[in-house]
Amino acid sequence: MKHINAEVIAVGTEILIGQINNTNAQWISKQLADHGINVFYHHVVGDNLGRVRESFEKAQRDADFVLVTGGLGPTEDDLTREAFQLVSGLEMHEDQEAMDAIKDFFNKRGRTMSPNNHKQARVFEGAAVLENTVGMAPGMLVEHEGTVWAFMPGVPREMKQIMSDHVLPYAREKWQLHSVLQSRLLHFIGIGESQLETDLLDLIQVQENPTIATYASEGEVAVRLTARADTKKEADRLIDEVERDVMDRVGHYFYGYDETSVQQQVYDMLKQRQLTLASAESLTGGLFGDALVSISGASAVFLGSIVAYSPLVKQNVLGVKEETIKTAGTVSEACAVEMAENAVRLTNADIGISFTGAAGPDATEGKEPGTVFISLHEKGKATKTTELSIRSSRQGVRAIAVKKGFELLFHHLKATIS
């Protein structure tokens, strides 16, 4: 089967200036990947005729399949049709069925149609007109000099309807798309992207099918394995083989698949062991508790968080000794230990975790910004403390500390379950 190379183009200045996210491209790429179509480029271009034309000319040269969203509205800055006409030389005419549908759209809502709405019914000669059942502007499928162009509105629900009802069935039939592209995302925590890549380098260098890609996000990394095969079962088998090789090298850091999160895994393990957790937060100001209670059913394992930001609250509410604060300071292992142990004492939780440190941008108690102490205490066991030196912004330090807290909990619980 010929490999079909696609490009997704979003037309709209509102995307370029950050008013809206380009979620259309993400959704379209997922649908195409599921059909075994390679997406080589995502391109965003503003409402400028010259730039839209340039992006279309490049796509015409490079791609077999071009999917365009946006620029099909009734206003002067909706320039998709005009740009493609300059590229293709195709004439346009007003499609009567599309115009009737637009008029009906206004009539049903008791609104008066303005003359510029006629523009939305203009289609290219020879185009397949794609009915828009949830909006006004129809989509179009046009083949020009061997490249297939799909034009769709930028409104996500309209695009998805046209894509699902018309564009994907057309692609399946035209290119006899029988193969599938299957992906699996493996999440790792406690290992950096550079070390992960080093440990997997020989596998990455010989990758072909499945392919191996590494990704980094705040405080964790991931590996995406992607295989192409005639059936989902065969693709899964190919991925399984490579996954075994990956796990042999870095499996110690693995915490879950696909859409999971480390806090979800911590929640699951706490629930499995019927353990409860409480937190004492200074540096993080409640971010840890917020991350955990975002999970449905968190009340089954999480008793609460004591946010003790000032030294006085640490002492009078959380019970940190005055002597500890005076001699060691609040940014210290001694303070973190008492915070975690007192979180357990005050809530009767099985496990307590604490966060204290200097978020920055200035030093705190002579400690450099990014100095963080996290203590973990389980009833009947010795308290463990981890000291970090995080180089990031104030918000970055706090977010990374929270992620590190979940990492420590994950490995602690994993060790006790094993």
What do these coordinates show?
With 418 residues, the protein is of the alpha/beta class. It folds into three domains: 5-175, Molybdenum Cofactor Biosythetic Enzyme, Chain A (3-Layer(aba) Sandwich); 180-257, Alpha-Beta Plaits (2-Layer Sandwich); 262-417, Maf protein (Alpha-Beta Complex). The protein has 14 helices and 17 strands. The chain has helices at residues 13-16, 23-34, 49-62, 80-88, 96-108, 156-175, 193-205, 232-250, 262-273, 287-293, 311-318, 322-327, 333-347, 394-417; strands at 5-11, 38-45, 65-69, 92-94, 122-124, 128-130, 139-144, 147-152, 180-188, 211-217, 220-229, 254-257, 277-281, 302-307, 351-357, 371-378, 384-389. The strands form four sheets. Strands 2-1-3-8-7-6 form a six-stranded mixed sheet, with helices on both faces. A five-stranded mixed sheet has the order 14-13-15-16-17, sandwiched between helices. Strand 13 (277-281), helix 10 and strand 14 (302-307) form a beta-alpha-beta unit. Helix 9 packs parallel to helix 14. It starts with a strand and ends with a helix. The relative contact order is 0.08. Residues 7-174 form the MoaB/Mog domain. This is Putative competence-damage inducible protein. Belongs to the CinA family.
